[in-house]
Amino acid sequence: MNVQKLQQNSYASPSRLSFPFDEIKNAWLPLLLDAYYIADQGVFEGIRRQTAKGRTLACSKWCSHCCSSHTTIPVYPLEVVGVYWYAIEKLDITQKKILLDPLRNHVSGDPCPFLNQGACVIHPMRFLACRHFNVFDTVCAENEDAFFTRREDVLTPIKKYKNDALSKMLPFLGLKTKAQRKEAIKTGWIHQQAQVLQEIEWSKLADRLSSVAH
Ligand code: SF4
Ligand code: SF4
Known about the structure:
two-stranded antiparallel ribbon, 12 helices, binds iron/sulfur cluster
């Protein structure tokens, strides 16, 4: 999901999002920003390895068919908190207003409500799954989910980075020790905590946004 993608497309090394004041106020926020940074580093390295083998990243700015065609994008609990925070605290009034109707009218199974005119409104805080999804050589057709039509063209996230990113989020769910986090990933418990983006009741976020979008 590489709407406005970018950094990877131009092969610039990713940088960690930083909100110093908010990270002091919200103890959960550095966990999420660290997780996204680790994931971005893994994607960057994965793309670097594939391009070294002669493949070309197909994703580019404004390419967004994947955001509409994917129907089961996992969103972890900390990511839900993160997107609420980002939408309420960091989007400007215009962006908030853009999201109001899509969020309010979203029903289970609809495409992602954060996509607006080919761009991801929450792009800096897009979800782990969105960050991980990259396709090589051929741009996805409308309605195509390349994971099913040509798995060989889809980037497989490097396991160590992916697991480290997931592990970073686990203290939010009460798993403080390294052993607990390792077990949660090894057994797949972490994935059982995820919701599907398309099935989340986004109207609640619309209610929160409408109270601050003046
Ligand atoms: S090439 Fe496919 S996966 Fe990449 S941004 Fe475009 S639609 Fe999404
Ligand atoms: S949050 Fe939605 S619009 Fe943004 S990248 Fe993910 S699927 Fe696309």
